[in-house]
């Protein structure tokens, strides 16, 4: 029916662990708000393809208004919109990979004189033309690209047969990454040498422009725009539900725990969309969309690493305190605790990298402010 009917009563965690749920829930909400702001900025950038003179805040405001309207109507509409957004993305990426392969095998030569070839992946300075630090600098956006991967695990509570569907979903992730991410990047870089990539333009659109298909370029620009809108739509959906869950646990104002006649947590939805308008303000403060996007995506990556770290620490605690239940599991995480420790060490490594780059250091310095705000809010909550 799409309505919220908790199957189990809400269980309040005793101190000192109640802070973890409070910090995780609100940080996860803020993560998706920040991610939504990044998507709104991206949508404004893509709109410049058709309307280069349009003020950047106009498409951002229109996007937030559209997402709010769609999510207020019905829960079912969210699923329908996401299905078609996903179908559009899949068809577009397949077309991109096929076009790139055709240009490589057909001997395409760019206007600058570079021939489309797989050799472009390692020519013109080698695989690491800016050294290893140039390679590591890309880790920030790579971490941001994996935002939302934890949703695979959270669906276990709502899946009809999690013992069968969850392993299939998790095991298919590497295959999907290879095809939809790695192959798409190879197609782009094989046609366009890295020196010719324009930072403030979509490489997907530029590839079809080089292929002599300006109409297709417009279609692909629409595709990447819908992709960003899909991510923002997921963010709006998840943040409103997170506020609903926090309200039920007493970690958020009770108003967020009320549903509309359409069984939608409308007040949490309105609050999240108002927060998304922060993207409009940010674009006014920082007119350079690339700089604003880097700042927001870095902050999102930092906060998501915090949430992922708490998930892994919870797993380690679960194995220690519920060893029998873990042993009875038929689908265990490869590597167990050792893999968790490796992931936590990798996150520390990422934080060090963010501190070394000027364009990501600002977000790293600002991120502790969020946890200070949470600490103050939690202290007031405990006294209430």
UniProtKB/TrEMBL annotation:
Coiled coil: none annotated. It holds the Pfam family AA_permease. Residues 18-383 form the Amino acid permease/ SLC12A domain. InterPro entries: AA-permease/SLC12A_dom (IPR004841). Its main location: membrane. One of its GO terms (cellular component) is plasma membrane. It is found in: Cell membrane. It is a multi-pass membrane protein. The chain crosses the membrane at residues 26-51, 57-78, 90-110, 130-152, 173-195, 207-232, 268-286, 292-316, 337-356, 362-380. Keywords: Amino-acid transport, Cell membrane, Membrane, Transmembrane, Transmembrane helix, Transport. One of its GO terms (biological process) is amino acid transport. This is D-serine/D-alanine/glycine transporter. The lineage of its organism: Bacteria, Pseudomonadati, Pseudomonadota, Betaproteobacteria, Rhodocyclales.
